[in-house]
Amino acid sequence: MAGRGSAMHVARNKRTYVAKSGERRVYESVLVRRTYREAGKVRHETLANLSALPAGAVAAVEATLKGDRLVPAGQAVTITASLPHGHVAAVHAMAVKLGLPALLGPAGRARDLALALVISRVVAPASKLATLAWWDDTTLGADLGVAEASTDDIYAAMDWLAGRQDAIEAQLAARHLAPEANPGRMALFGLSSSWLEGTHCPLAARGYSRDGKKGNLQIEYGLLTDPEGRPVAVRVFAGNTGDPAAFTGIVKVLRDKFALAKMVMVGDRGMITSARIKALNQPEDDGAPPPDPYGWITALRAPAIKKLMADDGPLQLSLFDQQDLAEITSPDFPGERLICCRNPVLAEERARKREDLLQATEKLLAPLTARVAAGRLHGAARIGVEAGKVVSKYKMGKHFDLAITDDSLTVTRRQNQIDAEAALDGIYVLRTPVPGDQLDAPAVVSAYKNLSRVERDFRSIKSDDLDLRPVYHRLEERVRTHVLICMLASYLTWHLRRAWAPLTFTDEDPPASGDPVAPARRSTRAQAKASYQHDGAGRPYRSFRGLLKHLATLTRNQVRFAGTSITVPMLAEPTPTQRQAFDLLGTPIPLTLT
């Protein structure tokens, strides 16, 4: 028998019989057999009976006899590498959807590096050197071909991008500020600052710090957006540049570089001053007025509002008896409309805050008064110095009278001053030359309040998402390019936040208010998100940054199967949230970025 050469196989034999009870029963026997021919006939030789073995063991024997190679479970597959993939794949997918690669410039290594810097700023904001090391830890480096880049490569790409800034921003302006996309021809502009590390940057200067870093050198940068707050352009200025000068600079960019006519610029009261308004449409060198006069919307400062209220002026509190919005005119502002608003919620909050600060100042002054009365502090000069420190702590000195002698200190409130300030609580006045048939009063108020969207962009750029500050670069052009990269990353983030609103705490559909003066409110759905923290399927809502971290758990693994030396890329099984994140972007989960 042993000499008969033939392949073994597993045979399954079934037999059926009927028991005395009438029950029909089926038995199966599993046999290992060898089949061969003898004298022209097919013969079967049974080598083993496997009927008592578990089904899994029988399947293993059967597979082996068919020629399959079986290995221990732990050795069948080897994962040779695993890199985070989902977060960079999602941001790259949005960049491609927005046409960002083509927007940056012609294809090439410089563009790949610039795109990688923008995507990295969204996903994992860090210094350029830290970003360079991080590329090896994700699929971004390998897929964009930047994993082996050097610091010189990065700086060369930044210099290349700096030369492309005007072209990039001109395309964004045509996309979002041109009349076809922006019928109201409206643009928002705001100015912020960030501190620098080091002392040799030509742009570094001491100025008004919006970061609370009063002792640090800083830069200023102005952000131009469309009415929705979508970033379009950014300009960097020296750290001691004032708001009005920055406004003049951006208007020149709009006119000369973007060729946009008859725009309506929206800026805060410190930016669009009377001097800037006068210069906005001043005659050209030939004495002719500009062919594309610009409109504007801004607000009056408190002294101007007081003047409107004084001596039975056009602004009286009786205007707000039946409404919270009224339009007036004044000979002090010829050719302009003045839209007066009173927000009772804001008025109540300001009154509460002022009283709290007054009481806090009086509490600090009480021990000082006791020291003077006890003779532990004497001399008018010394008492005045100590009292000045106290009343300036909360900036309430204007509301107190201090009577000081060599041995006494008397503190009284300036109630008339307090009452005069309280009369302005919650009142603000907007000014614009835009005619009413082009923009009615409620629309003017809404446009000005849209400046909060620029402030939201600044929060995203500076701290919440992109971590622009502090700035470590020394060369002026590198500083400007660093801010440009952050602006382009903000453009990406703006669209990602909107696309991923169903997965995050973002309000997907803020309710439209019939009263533009009233405070903005969240929708019922957004309030439910904040309260329950989970959707109907039990999945948690996440912050934007938290969603990116969750996407990072979707890895791309290099897998090697037993008996081979070749590895193949395979994605981990996505979670439902990860699948939905890509569905909201309108793209399948890609195995590779390119």
Q: Key terms for this structure?
A:
elongated, alpha+beta, 19 helices, 594 residues, three-stranded antiparallel beta sheet, 16 strands
- Terminal CA distance reads 62 Å
Identify low-pLDDT runs.
none
What oligomeric arrangement do these chains adopt? Answer: single chain
Shape: elongated
Approximate strand percentage: 15-25%
Strand order of the largest sheet: 7-6-5-8-9-14-11-10
Largest sheet: 8 strands, mixed
Number of strands: 16
What's the overall average pLDDT, rounded? Answer: 90
Q: Supply the helix-strand structural class.
A: alpha+beta
How many helices? The count is 19
Radius of gyration: 36 Å
Structural commentary:
The protein is of the alpha+beta class and 594 residues long. Among the domains are: 8-70, no CATH class; 170-299 and 434-474, no CATH class; 345-422. Helices cover 40% and strands 20% of the residues. An eight-stranded mixed β-sheet has the order 7-6-5-8-9-14-11-10, sandwiched between helices. It has a three-stranded antiparallel β-sheet with strand order 1-2-3. Helix 2 (86-97) packs across helix 4. The protein is elongated. The model has no long low-confidence stretch (mean pLDDT 90).
